Amino acid sequence: MSKADVSVRTGNIKQMNRLGPLLALTVASIALTACNPGMLEDGKHLQPIPAKIKDKIRKIGSTEKAPIYIRIFKEEAVLEAWKERKDGTYALLKTYPICAYSGEIGPKKREGDRQAPEGFYAITRGQMNPQSSYYLSFNLGYPNKFDRSYGRTGKHLMVHGSCSSRGCYAMEDAPIAEIYSLGREAFSGGQRSFKVHAFPFRMTPENMARNRNSEHFAFWQNLKNGYDHFQITHKPPKVEVCNRTYIFDPQGASHFDATGPCPDYTVEPSLLASLKTLRQKENIRFQQAALKLEQKVQEKEVETADAMVESQLELLERKQKISEGKNPDGFLAGLIKGNPAPTAASQAALPVSGIAAQSAPSASIALAEPETEAPSGGFFSKLTSAIPNPFGQKKQPIILPQTDVSETINTLPQPRQ
């Protein structure tokens, strides 16, 4: 064999080696297509990123193949798509409406509870489903390590199209197609998995105060730590699980056991300082919001109680007037209703029970007689002296204790139920 032949043969072998992974991927794609002949026919999973979204990507300083990050807010029913910029931070690309989700705010705990998950999830290429029965979808990966540490069960929890949900987050078809295309291009650009962080609501101090009495509050405190990390850094936090608790951006430890005690770890000093500052400010806002809410509840209780007392007093006053042979609606109102006030003669001739029957209470009173002050020692004086009014004084406002800033930053929080 000549040197030229050897050279050509060697070059062909090198070229085949370089094409090997691509050929394997092509063969796998052909095999998958054979199992799902509709894949190449509808092409919905291959829809390009819309031109408007491409233009927005450029405006925020990102690229089509840059990594993506998704946040879900259940109560507000929105999904946010973020794109990574050149400096490694993420910018909001677009906010999509969630068409439907199952259940209420709060985590999913067991198969069949019809709750949409809350927590921190990672989506790999294998979790993308181009042949979904709900147009397009991707699997959230529930239960994750945190969920499993509590024995939570469930499967096939998706973000999908078709606007129909039984434990999933459902979108209209056009939005899920855009989101799917963003994920597909990010994988093509080298992102191994994109993060989906699902929250019950936007985790402001005011929203936390509004939900402070929920059974899920401790769990939401844990979620808020991850929310705060992103708010400060604009980078999706690294998420670990230990002591059945989410841990964010830990440094100095390599192994985390979801159910075991947490190893010693640290948080980057500047991030830790920013978290402390944020927590101090938000604790004040939380206490102020909680106090306002508590005062509103107390005011509502007092208003309801006052209305009940006034209603009872009005009823007693009518009965008192009827027992004295008077028209409880007043002379003019009685004429309008056809119930003139009784004369002395008719009063003597008509028993009290008959007057009471004529003077049935009415919801609409045109003109009423001015109320006269009850005589001293009379019926109402005896009534008010005998029955104390428990609603006479408002409750003292509840002063909420100062939240310990270090509980969720410097020390390990307790397991979250």
TrEMBL record:
Identification of the protein by name: Transcriptional regulator
Record keywords: Glycoprotein included? no
Family the entry assigns: Belongs to the YkuD family.
Q: What's the source species' lineage?
A: Bacteria, Pseudomonadati, Pseudomonadota, Alphaproteobacteria, Hyphomicrobiales
Biological source species: Cohaesibacter celericrescens
Give yes or no: UniProt keyword Cell wall biogenesis/degradation.
yes
According to its UniProt entry, the protein's GO biological process terms are: cell wall organization; peptidoglycan biosynthetic process; regulation of cell shape
Q: Where is this region: Disordered?
A: 393-417
PROSITE patterns per the UniProt record, alphabetical: LD_TPASE (PS52029), PROKAR_LIPOPROTEIN (PS51257)
Sequence ranges assigned to domain L,D-TPase catalytic in this UniProt record: 68-199
- Active-site residues are H160, C168
